[in-house]
Here is the input.
Amino acid sequence: VIQFLADCRPISVSMGNAIKCIKQSLTKSSLQPQISNLESKQNVLDEVSRLRKSIVEARELIEENGVKKIYDNDVILVYSASCVVENILAYAHQLGKKFKVIVVDSTPKFEGRTLLSRLVALGVRCSYGLLSGVSYLIKEVTKVFLGAH
Here is the structure.
């Protein structure tokens, strides 16, 4: 299970914490010989569900508070792509807030292009630049939103 998670994406701090919780759940189950394999699996699944619920609640709280930080005429710089940042911007736009987004991107993945196309499709005013040009782009920026994975 742990190797599968590590293979899916680079291990972040939050992913490391999730792995630690799963390992603790497995260890706890293995120390109780009266628990069947089925019960042990269910305990791990319950722990994963609890972790997922906690992560979703945290994401929703971040998005809710992020939208409150956006005002009309803001110029918001974002780096690469983040689903949380994307949701914040999309919801703010949905609320009728008037702002511009500068998507800054870099090699090798150019993930910001995906974010850019999604925001443009929603009708958000956007521009695009590379990380090497951020010193020029930052001059008009009023806020910076960065995602954390």
